[in-house]
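Researcher: Please translate sequence to structure tokens.
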Amino acid sequence: MLNRETLGQGPNLTLIHGWAADNGVWRTWVEAELAPHFTCHLIELPGFGDSPVIEAETVSHIRQRWRAAVIEALPPGQTALLGWSLGGLIAQDVLLHAPERISHLIGLATSPRFVQVEGWQHGVPPQLVADFMQALVVDMALLLKRFWMLQWQGNPGARRLMKQFVAEMKGRSLPKLTGLRQGLILLRTLDFRQQLNQITQPTLWLLGEKDPLIPVGWVEQLATLQPQAQVVVIPDAAHLPFRSHPQETAQAIIQFTV
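Model: Translation complete:
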């Protein structure tokens, strides 16, 4: 069973973190900005934070078992569902398979496909994920530090925030190797572009203008993929808008869901 923390009071809002993170990445922000408005449920993905590893080898098994574990961890009744980065891909998968449980979808610094492919240049090169896979078994701690720093690229004046963030992340227990590997497999393979039009719940894509991993230009495809979706772009934010622009990020979520 996945680890879930609950904070605050109000309508349900469930949050799913990204790769190489855990609930600690946004707990302080949630307490300050969201808990006064929502009952916030923070779910840790398999092999991250205090959630156990889920044994699965094939892409389909990893996807099915991660999705089932997250659905099991959802609060009773309906919830708004927010996913950041990898968590955003998982959130889309959860909604498509358990739509009756989800009232709103919020994709934070995420998209329907993370990796570039023919006809979709709005992501990271496949080689980056392949390099990460190799680096995992060579020096996991060094790779994680590199990734934590990468998320701040493009954010003006972020050096102080980046140093603080990296020091904070290094001070916590590292994710499990299996969780990291499975997460990379899902980042490489999940693709919901052709299923976005099946989503009937109100949807908000909340993006950083300077995000080095999720180029904001992908939203130009929404006119075809999901014309009813809303988009908010946070000026000067990179891949961690809830850390660099905490009030603006929270306000967009509150205005969308309340």
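Researcher: Any highlights?
Model: The radius of gyration is 17 Å.
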